[in-house]
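Task card 7
Instruction: Convert sequence to structure tokens.
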Amino acid sequence: MGGIQHKLATGKGLFTPRWPHLGTGPVSYEDCISPEFFADEQEAIFRRSWLYVGREAQLPRPGSYFVRELPRLGSIVVTKDLDGEVHALSNVCAHRGNKVVWQEHPGRESRGSCREFACKYHGWRYGLDGRLKHLTCEDQFFDLDKSALRMPKLHCEVFAGFVFVNLSEEPEPLREFLGPRLLELEDYPFHQMTNAFGFECRINGNWKLGMDALLEWYHPAYVHGRFIHKDVAKAEKLVPPPDSYHYDLFGKHMLTSVPGPPLLPPRDGSPGPAQRDQNWVYRLFRAGLFGPDDPIDIGPLPEVLNRGGIDFWGNDQFWFWPNLSVQIWARNYLITYEYWPETVDSHQYRVNMYFPEPKDVAERLAQELTVCSTIEFAMQDSNTVEATHQALSARTQHQLQLSDLEIMIRNFHTVVGDVVRTYRHEQGR
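Output:
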């Protein structure tokens, strides 16, 4: 056991036995490669759950809007009307079904501000709440009830600045869906996280495999090994021991907390001669994968964080069912991860990072290095997702083994399976 293992080991034992209903046996990954299962989970999960679509900060003033293209679920427009109320609208015209809000390319997301939306096809106009305001050549239509025509309105609620939509007819209220543990996050100063960075890409693998890659911390010494130490044996000794993490499961949602490296001491002079070495770059910019070494003060953190009492706490990763992770970091920034299914074999992966506004160039560069490090590690994780999906699709391995470090994977696939089985029972299957 290396020095880090000795320093962080707690002796608190295994987590999986605390949730005996999950079992400890092998699991099936048929849910990631079956087209039939994929079709059912779209109806059972994505058309019934509250889905995160953006931050209210993207609507800085009345009249602001942004478009989200949700794979398989359609295009939606999120707006803030002139009274400050947030709405979510299906981005489709009541006339001939044209997409109403788009710029040069219909498939690209856009944002802006206006007093009303105008369909580019025939000029029908809609208010920021989706109500039809004007139609051209009205006298050429038959028995038209204008009051009944609109861009379809979706259920939309805001929690702690996070905008959620629900596509079902009568969803449970968002706050009930989130439950008491996630509601405690309202005490976090999300409003201070205004310096945003983001990227997205298409991953050739099932969306659940994408989530699995971040649901465990078993892999860093191997997937990210050369960034930890070029000698794998030494890299293994530089990652925290299994019992230093904290896991919690509450309803369909989950939490993992992880330790992180201590802050670098104040730099005394030069970091030394330039080297093609990650650690030298981290010393130069005083930042790395776990964030800036001189974090911007955002005031006291709420008690909801680091409930596991982890030594050298690095971050809390809250998993919002079904496809959102909100990582809150000890160094005062946050990351959101989104996983949007396209097909059984692919998903859209979105990562957004939020920091307090930097006061000088050094703080800005530290944030940008953190972003670059995060993207690099995220792409390394995604590379394994594509390899896993390709291998599983051959169906030569039917039972996969999970360790205690992978308890959240076990729970996630259990919950997915339970929800789909309930849906199939409702459908008489």
